[in-house]
Design brief:
With 129 residues, the protein is mainly β. The protein has a single domain, classed as Jelly Rolls, CATH 2.60.120. The protein has one helix and eight strands. The chain has a five-stranded mixed β-sheet. The protein has a three-stranded antiparallel β-sheet with strand order 2-8-4, with no helix packed on it.
């Protein structure tokens, strides 16, 4: 899929920095990272920093239209693209294998919106320095 420069969007968002001083794991899942893109036909590449994350517990998304996605644990080898509802059914613990997780989304046309894509999880203990 070749997209012109205007249609190729890259993003990096993380919630980990907000939790730098936690000394105990979260009892309930917290937002690990979130992104959105609407009103464009485009390929989106995005990664989440999983440093300090003990486990991913859920994926959620708000979207309309034809949105497909693939993911990678190394930023090089991606899974085959699947419709976003299929990715949302994947066990989140199967996704993480390192300190970063990359995603590629394809919004098929201007009617496709990815209003919100969120990773949920729990943070690990921080050792006292």
């Amino acid at each position: 899929m070749d997209m012109d420069a205007e249609s190729w969007i890259q993003g990096y968002f993380t919630g980990v920095a907000l939790h730098n001083h936690l000394r105990t794991p979260q009892a309930h899942p917290s937002v690990i990272a979130s992104m959105s893109a609407t009103g464009i036909a485009a390929d989106l590449e995005w990664f989440a920093d999983l440093s300090g994350v003990a486990a991913l517990t859920a994926l959620s998304a708000e979207f309309t239209g034809n949105v497909s996605a693939s993911y990678s644990s190394d930023g090089v080898s991606y899974t085959n693209p699947v419709p976003l509802p299929e990715l949302l059914r994947v066990n989140p613990s199967a996704l993480s294998g390192g300190t970063r997780l990359w995603f590629r989304f394809h919004l098929a046309d201007d009617a496709a919106d990815l209003t919100n894509f969120t990773l949920w999880g729990v943070f690990s203990n921080e050792e006292a320095v």
